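Researcher: Good morning. I'm working through a list of sequences from a screen, and I'd like to move beyond sequence-only analysis. For each chain I'm collecting a predicted structure so we can compare shapes side by side. This is the next one on the list. No need for commentary yet; just the structure.
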Amino acid sequence: MGREPPGTARTNESEEPPVPRMLDVSEDVRAEIGDDEADRLLAGENAPGSYDCTSCRTPGDPEQERTSTVLFVGDETAVLAFAHATCIPSQVVRVAEEQLQGAVRSITGEERRPAAPAQVPAGPQQAVLGVTSGLVAIDGELHPALVVEPTAPIARPGSYGTEDEFLPLLVEQGFTPVPDLSAKPPALGGWSVLLAVGQLHAILQPSPVGGQQVAWWQAHQPLQVTDGWRTAANKSQTVLVFAAPVGSIGQQPREDLMRDALEKAAANGRLVAAAMPLAGTS
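Model: Good morning. Structure tokens for this chain:
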């Protein structure tokens, strides 16, 4: 009594349960997606058979290697992506809805338009900033860098003058004047560089009212970076952000020319910089 009929046992043996994936689901991700969905992922029911790592963009297989679940959360949309656990840990990356749509297009392989200029608040008006990525050699080591240059002078918020206050405003925020490129600039607390799905999305600064960071610069469309830049950023987990007034650097087609322009701006007292950690994934 109490034993199952022979046929039942044979039927159960023929059913193949889902193969558990080597997935890492952080507590933050679990809190966002719920226990049921997290358990289904861990059991292999909803996990991908293979994926492109959201950090290094190379293939991964959750049956063969530890894999991180990375949840991108916007205002109305959430996207679950996957990454090699050796690249980044499982985490929640909060981005603006517009940024998340760009990440969705990247994840699904939809073709994107070229990155457009972005805007940064400058008092009641908007000042357009140009952002260029490149590798800068300092003390024999290549560092991932961003060069920020406005397309016009930036006045102090609330003023009606025409004097360019871009560098003084950044120095007040903690950026350091750069006399030359012989040493890395110091770290700037509370600021970070947001990358997601291998693309640059924003430079974040502390919120003036506390709480989560806010965008100091935000891309209208995610900005592509080179594989070499992304590799260097993954290695150091730090990005050097240089800033100069309008007309100081320009759009340089090669990294050696960009460095020459940076050195000239530094020698003329027209360059500030800060080292910022990565936020999100790279």
